[in-house]
Amino acid sequence: MAKAVRKRGDSAGDARGSLLASAAKLFASRGYATTTVREIVERAGVTKPVLYYYFRSKEGIYLELMGEPFRKFESLLRETASEEGTAKERLVQMCLRVYETFLEHLDLARVMYAIYYGPPQGAPHIDFEAYHRSLQEAVRGVLEEGMRLREFRRADPADMMWAVMGTVTVAMELELCNPSRSVGKGGIERMLDLLFEGIAFREGIPKGKGTKG
Amino acid sequence: MAKAVRKRGDSAGDARGSLLASAAKLFASRGYATTTVREIVERAGVTKPVLYYYFRSKEGIYLELMGEPFRKFESLLRETASEEGTAKERLVQMCLRVYETFLEHLDLARVMYAIYYGPPQGAPHIDFEAYHRSLQEAVRGVLEEGMRLREFRRADPADMMWAVMGTVTVAMELELCNPSRSVGKGGIERMLDLLFEGIAFREGIPKGKGTKG
DNA sequence: GTCTATATTGAGATAGAC
DNA sequence: GTCTATCTCAATATAGAC
Question: Which of strand C's nucleotides are less than 7 A from any protein C-beta?
Fold first, then answer.
């Protein structure tokens, strides 16, 4: 155990990255509250002052950790909203990218779930709700556009939005708790297809999708 | 605060019930690990030995607490599986009853979510996964029957199952974290309707459901 | 500076009177 | 069945030797 041994090959900025990775893993597996600074630095192979140099505090490294995926998430929504393609195509893209971002940050997703659904654990407050809501708004926006373009049939946009969210939610939570049974991106596409066959407008069928059943 | 005052009107078996209610609220709001026996008994207006008399331990009251909704959940699945009605009707019933059971035990659902998605918190192990899976199997069973009866169109039953689960999941999680925006039972029915319009078989339409779009 | 031994605390759990 | 008073134990904090 002792001093934990950073090899000479490690580049300079690596300590920072090691600390982030270490904190992510520990927050994910043991929770924010129960993870100690000592554990984080030990696992990263550095000493306490290094953590405080880069991040000021345990809260600091937590906020830094959560910051990145959320920034990525926001830019993802902006991009997808202003893209080419049918409403359906954009919606599928949006769902798949959200899911991809989720996969790229599984550990952080775990931390987020634990704090969102569990007791606060003394972690500094992050407005997860706001991010979740901006995803909802983005999805709903595309759905409403699809309705205007008569690509989708008319229904309560909120209901449609939640049905779409349901497919992504299920895929994500399966990945979190039961990765071996994960449906993956393919699964999301197939679920959305099932849903679209009900959402798709059925009178003047716009593109080329007949009743293929 | 002091002694916490049990009024004379309280009937005999009430201490037990108060303890259960108290533990449910506290486990839900503060988590299993951080909730102390002292807090539980104080809130219930009794003393420690009363808790140990009825439940043997902190783990005991936790298991007792979780036991009831899960027993109810299992009988619910059995009942619904062996009922009258079309596959769609039974599926909707099943979803609505799961959701109702969830609503009746919101606090416990919160505890369950915290432990399922978060760190174990030292709580005794409960195989939530098994219950979740039996729900999945029940839903899938009805779906497959619906396919055999040509009430639903053919598709991967697992995909359909997850799509259905998604609607319930979304409704439940909304209720947990954002009850003011809850979609409620009506929302589940509407989401399922959206989904069915895609799942419903479209060639020899069995019952009386034409393309009403 | 670091390590080990010793307090202190606060948790879960119990004994025995009533 | 419920109380007061107490026990056990583990985690943390601290003191003092090295």
Answer: 10-16
**How far is the C-alpha of B10 from the C-alpha of B13, rounded, in Å?**
8
Which of A138-142, A198-202, B203-207 is modeled with the greatest confidence?
A: A138-142
pLDDT at residue A204 in the model: 43
- Confidence band (pLDDT; 50, 70, 90) for B198? low
CB contact under 8 A, B177 and A117: yes
Q: How far, in Å, CA of A150 to CA of B63, rounded? A: 53
Among the listed residues A193, A172, A156, A158, the one whose alpha carbon sits nearest the alpha carbon of residue B169: A172
**Residue-averaged pLDDT of chain A:** 86
Give B57→chain A minimum CA distance, Å. Answer: 22
Binding-face residues of A in 160-189 toward B, CB within 8 A: 160, 162-163, 165-167, 169-171, 173-174, 176-178, 183, 187
Interface with A, mutate which of B159, B160, B174, B181 (most A CBs under 10 A): B159
Tokens in use for A112?
């987020």
CA terminus-to-terminus distance, chain A: 62
Which of the four pLDDT bands, split at 50, 70 and 90, describes residue B189?
Answer: very high
Exposure letters B150-159 (e unless 16+ CB within 10 A, then b): ebbbebebbb
Comparing CB atoms, the residue among B113, B165, B169 nearest residue A117 is B113
**Cα A115 to Cα B28: distance, rounded to the nearest angstrom:** 13
Lowest-confidence region among A47-56, A182-191, A192-201, B23-32: A192-201
For testing the chain B interface, which of A35, A113, A159 should be mutated: the one with the most B CBs within 10 Å? A159
Q: Is the pLDDT of residue B11 over 70?
A: no
Please state the separation of Cα B17 from the chain's center in Å: 20
B162 sits in which H/E element: helix B157-177
Checking if the pLDDT of A199 tops 70, the result is no
Tokens representing residue B79 in the block: 């009942």
